[in-house]
Amino acid sequence: MSNSPKTLFDKVWDSHVVRQIADGPDVFFIDRHFIHEVTSPVAFLGLEQRGVSVLFPEKTFATADHNTPTINQHLPVEDPLSANQLLQLEKNTSKYGISHWGLGNPKNGIVHVVGPENGITLPGMTIVCGDSHTSTHGAFGAIAFGIGTSEVEMVLSSQCIMQPKPLKMRINVNGQLGKGVTPKDVALYIISKLSTSGATGYFVEYAGDVFENMSMEGRMTVCNLSIEMGARGGMIAPDQTTFDYIHGRELAPKGAEWDRQLAYWKTLKTDPNAVFDKEITFSASDIEPMITYGTNPGMGMGISKQIPIAKDLEGGASTYAKSLDYMGFEENDSMIGKKVDYVFIGSCTNGRIEDFRAFASIIKGRKKADHVTAWVVPGSHVVEAQIHAEGIYDILTEAGFALRQPGCSACLAMNDDKIPAGKYAVSTSNRNFEGRQGPGSRTLLASPLVAAAAAITGVVTDPRQFL
Amino acid sequence: MAYDSFNVLRSSAVPLPIENVDTDQIIPARFLKATERKGFGDNLFRDWRFDKNDQPKSDFVLNNPTYSGKILVGGKNFGSGSSREHAAWAIYDYGFRCVVSSFFADIFRGNSINVGILPVQVSPEFLHQIFTEIEKDPKAELEISLPEQTITLVSTGASESFQINGYKKHNLLNGFDDIDYLQAMKDEIATFALNR
């Protein structure tokens, strides 16, 4: 068996199995565990109730992001429940000796932004966090996925979780992406083809020249959205782009240890003739800037197209009608020209410096539409500093945009950044579920370019006319 | 140790024939601010169940006294989206012990078992039969046997088997959880970590 061809996923998974249980899950070892204030407190409480401690505190990293405010972070957090969660995180991490980048720490930011940017995320690792967008870290050739709070408690107490090995899917995208087509569009396109459950039960490897030619930040955007087609996670084989990104980052290996690990990382690719349970191939030239029109990320389409007609879709006509009714849209409508009230750029999906560069490329020398409220939220303080250093801050200010402070913000609206009921938001985040961005909010998921075009014109606009 | 054991459950069921019920609907993010596992049932399906003035919406099934029971029956792809275990806590805290659907999202399925809810996946045809029977008689009962791995519509006798791995089945039958298991193999884990 050991000589048979293996996928990248097999190589990483198999090397982390502590014990295989017959007719049961694998006991699966975790290299890196990220925690945040929302899904960890009950896990720490569980440890205390059982009277057990944290087995390897140096393998867990905490940041506060989900419910933090994005203005006036130097002031006490007003919402007492949010303040309490932040306090609990501080207390719990201090008690067990876990690294904690809380509010005000210069390394603070969204968990899936700060992990890679500080060199914590490395190829070949197993990485979990009580957050479904942990799949982001798969961009480095790691197996990374979201877990529940019971599993957070497992990792804290034993550095393992119990998971059956998922099936394997490879998604190939080949060719040249067109003008204005970003990694976000590639991901939304794939999800629109597979639906939100099309990859459930699978772990995805993304392959083909589109991903090979993509930056690390773009790969993170793609892997981030793997969960939105139901996949546990998605990964991309590490290559020179990956190694160049990691090299020199603060917590990345150095010197001889770098050389040793690099030699291992170079083995992390799918062998020729390795078999996947499912393989799908798309052509890059079929993808245009995308936008969603419904209430799950699978309900997306090319921005120049019309909203599909229910009878052309498989099953679920009543669910489809409910969704369009919530959005206030009709079958066969064009999205172009629809009024936009809010624009949100940020989140673990599109909150990195390349996203703000893309946004700035369109708004530069233009003005924000008067009726649009825009929230520009960097993924971390490091990204915030880059925005200043690269002159993007000045471009934003001149165009009438204010820059906020880092956090998850309006992606899930746990803090005050809530889209009001009935209002339309073009959002670079990851979910357009009913009420996701605030009760009654209506979300149109799109790339930073589409978000910028909407912010300038005040309506859904094809960004290619500005490029 | 974390929850009640599960053996055979016979109960009427609450129908929710909607597809892609995501965890943001099951428990919206603004209700994730507790630091203890308490009271989440009050906010189960919050925005479908209550209007913006916190008044119950009469057309939502949980507000219809005709339907009750310990089994929730949902449409395809139940529990998609966020990994929040709070969704499973909310369903449990409300009083459900079993969720039936023709397809579950991965993380939700795992979280459910970890908190003591049995996710039962049935064929689309059987799901349709269940919805039809409940429509005819809201008190129609389902019997779910974990030892036998069967789900039966009591009124018609129609039955289907469901999958669960032997390890998880043993845990649910006895009220054991994964943390107990992992604690018992800590030395093996420490050795594994050392040799990595």
Please summarize the sheet with the most strands of chain A: 5 strands, parallel
Helix content percent band of chain A: 25-40%
Overall tally of domains of chain B: 1
CATH-assigned fold name of the largest domain in chain A:
Aconitase, domain 3
Q: Sheet with the most strands of chain B?
A: 7 strands, mixed
How many β strands of chain A by DSSP? Answer: 18
| Share of residues in strands of chain B | 15-25%
The string of secondary-structure elements of chain B, in order, is EHHEHEHEHEEEHHH
Please give the count of helices of chain A. 16
CATH topology description of chain B: Aconitase, domain 4
Molecular structure report:
Chain A is α/β, with parallel strands linked by helices and 467 residues long. Chain A has 16 helices and 18 strands. In chain A, strand 3, helix 2 and strand 4 form a beta-alpha-beta unit. Chain A is globular and about 55 Å long. Chain B has one domain: Aconitase, domain 4, CATH 3.20.19.10. The radius of gyration of chain B is 18 Å and the shape is globular. The mean pLDDT of chain B is 95. The chains are: A alpha/beta (467), B alpha/beta (196). At the A-B interface, helix 2, helix 3, helix 5, strand 8 and helix 11 of A face helix 4, helix 6, helix 7 and helix 8 of B.
Write the layout of secondary structure elements.
The complex is a heterodimer of chains A (about 475) and B (about 200).
Chain A: H1 8-14, E1 17-20, E2 26-29, E3 32-35, H2 41-50, E4 60-63, H3 80-96, E5 99-101, H4 111-117, E6 126-129, E7 143-146, H5 149-158, E8 160-163, E9 167-174, H6 183-194, E10 202-207, H7 209-212, H8 216-224, E11 233-235, H9 240-246, H10 255-265, E12 278-283, E13 290-292, E14 300-302, H11 317-327, E15 342-345, H12 347-350, H13 353-363, E16 373-376, H14 381-389, H15 392-398, E17 424-427, E18 442-445, H16 448-457
Chain B: E1 8-16, H1 23-26, H2 46-49, E2 71-74, H3 86-94, E3 98-101, H4 106-115, E4 118-121, H5 124-136, E5 141-145, E6 150-153, E7 159-161, H6 166-174, H7 178-183, H8 186-194
